[in-house]
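Task: complex structure prediction.
Instruction: return structure tokens for all chains below.
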Amino acid sequence: MKKMLTALTWIGLIMSSAIAMASDSAGVIKDPAESWKHLWMEVMIDLYIMGGIFGALAIYWLIKYRAKSPDAVGKGPKLTRSQRWAWAIVPCVLFLADDLYLGASGWSAWNVYRNVPENAMEVKVTGRMWNWEFEYEDGTTSSYDVDGDEGEKGDGLVVPVGTPVVLRMTSEDVVHSFGITEYRVKEDLMPGRITYIWFYPKKEAESWVTCTEFCGANHSRMYAPIKAVPAAKYQEWIAKRAKEEAEG
Amino acid sequence: MSKKSEKFNLSEWIFTTDHKRIGVMYLIGSIAAFSVAGVMAILIRIEQSSLGPTLAADAMTAGQQYNQWLYFHGAAMILAFLIPGLTGFAANYFLPLMIGAADVAFPRINALSVWLFWAGIIVALLGFVIPDAPDIMWTGYPPYSILTGGNTAFYVFTVHLLGFASILGAVNFLVTVIYMRAPGMGWNQLNMFVWSTVTAFVIQLVFVPVLAAAVTMLLFDKYLGTHFFDPSAGGDVLLYQNLFWFYSHPAVYVILLPALGILYEVVATFSKNRIFNYKAAVYGGMWGVVLISGEVWVHHLYVSGMPDWIRIGQMISTLLISLPVGLLAISLFGTLYKGAITFELPMKYAVSCLFLFLIGGLTGIPLAITALDLHLSDTSFIHAHFHYIMGIFATFSVFAAVYYWFPKMTGKMYNDKWGTIGFWLNFIGVNVTFMPLFKIGVDGMPRRYWNYEMFPQFETWHYIAMLGALLVASGMIITILNWIMSAMNGKKSVDNPWKSKSLEWTHTVNPPGPGNFLKDVKVADDWTPYDYGK
Ligand code: HEM
Ligand SMILES: [Cu+2]
Ligand SMILES: [Cu+2]
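Output:
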């Protein structure tokens, strides 16, 4: 019994690190959205397996061990000392292996999230109750405000397809959060600090950024469009914005 | 009940120091909080059921009233319903009975803590009559909670009162379990519910003071001009979030553990079975949770701009919770193995809880993984996750407790037909309400949003969620009415209707009188509360 346990423990530990390392080298995914989707599939499979095992066992036992008579009593096993330890250690090793596997996959995805590509275009984001402002590298700005004057809401964030974008973000008042479902990124904005996220618009797309940290009455109206457009169109747009600003 | 106490005497209840009556007062208070917060939930669901403002004329009003409802809903459900329902009501009434004690160690302190609890509920409810109700969500993050025109002080005082009540309860119950067990009762002979209460109270004792300090600093910042959380004056915006979650993550275990404790009792009784691997569940599972509970709070701050190393470090510690929680799950599910299972109403709730626990617990795993949470955080996926584990699993465990011990508390039997109808409405309703939220959460529906005009594709799902909520509302009304009606005119129950082996059933009458036991309890060396096989 003891020998078996030791063997099991070792097998579990070795397997877990092997799986963890294997997952690290698999695939050549580079941008947050793709790493997210890849990891999500992995985790979902994991969850369905675990949920399936526990759920199926519970259903099977609930049916199989229905009381045969009103006075029936259960015959659950009284575990011996080594069985008790086995039923503690073996599951723990399995869970630990799974944790390490998930942790390793999670860590590689995380590295993608935090390492901004060299050629990324930088945009400064300012959040305030309750609108967004974007400032491009050349000083041109764009904004979006649902309650803008005379229906003038603004253009939101316009970015060229094919260039990674890094956002350096801060807030003028309370905590807000910049979340874009399309690119699977999100990070809070706070007064007095600068946080960042990056994403990679690979194809033309129009999506939304929504404020995802509670910030008062208009929290749910603090959103803006994010338009990924062909590079030429982007140049056109930013030139137009620059001109508008020069004219005041 | 004996003849002379049959006449209801209000001051006898108010000034009582009897743990059973105190338990009942906790139950009434927490169900009251649950009901009001439940009405808020329905209003929230109705507001979200259509794209534009549904219950208001314009966007500004919609936003303001929605935030006030949501604030009350969250704060009351967690602070005034779940924590007091589990550690106030259930622990008060049943823990002394289970360990063979005549009362708790400090009965008057116990009375003080139920009064503080009631005061907390009243302060929370006063929020509805003041013109500037709090609108800061139960998390109360600054700077918003300081800058808002809403009355943050009511939030702070509610937390103070309920926190003090809980700290007093923690001291009281820990002393009670340590010193007042029946002669002969060793640590390995305690009910699972007793252990779960002990571990929950250890967490409360260690962590509640941190929350009390955090909200007090909030009060000072807002009303007395200090700058603890104001970066423009040298304060730190994130300090509050760290302190808040340093308490509030462990707080979810203050809810989880006693909920599991109750389920252990119900599952063991209706399977007539011993606990599967008791020691692993207690020393590895429950104490393991206590050990890890304080090292995972940053998983609530994954998107808050914390340093990278701690976000990864706490991803690992958060994932490691699966070890103790896994041991508890194996032990709880294993208790069904070779049982003699019957499906009375408390067991129906318990069985549904097994599945809710799976869904709620497993959906915590993607949230634990930092990179995945960078999208899921503050979406309805979170909302669905913690509703499965707290809003439904833990709530159903309270309902299982009320039905399971109903004969004990009232001497009467509940109405099974209405109870079962209520159960099915509740169970179907919660799934109809919260399943869609997982889906639209992954698709990007943000949390705490009354308005989602940029995502019209979510409208149908919100509408379905509202229908589910209405099912739950009808189920809850039936359930609570069933308790009230059955307590007044239910059929008389026999003393141990479930043939349980636990002391509260074998050694006391229904309901137990003052002093609980007719004669002193002594247990044998090989006695356990789950002695069915013998
Ligand atoms: C089984 C293991 C669990 C894991 C790994 C887990 C993980 C998480 C994570 C990472 C979050 C934060 C997500 C975010 O805000 O971005 C979260 C939210 C939450 N969880 Fe869990 N959880 C688990 C079990 C529980 C239990 C047992 C409860 C309650 C009894 C609970 C209640 C909550 C609540 C209330 C929130 C939302 C807090 C808020 O932001 O307002 N969780 N969970
Ligand atoms: Cu916001
Ligand atoms: Cu947590």
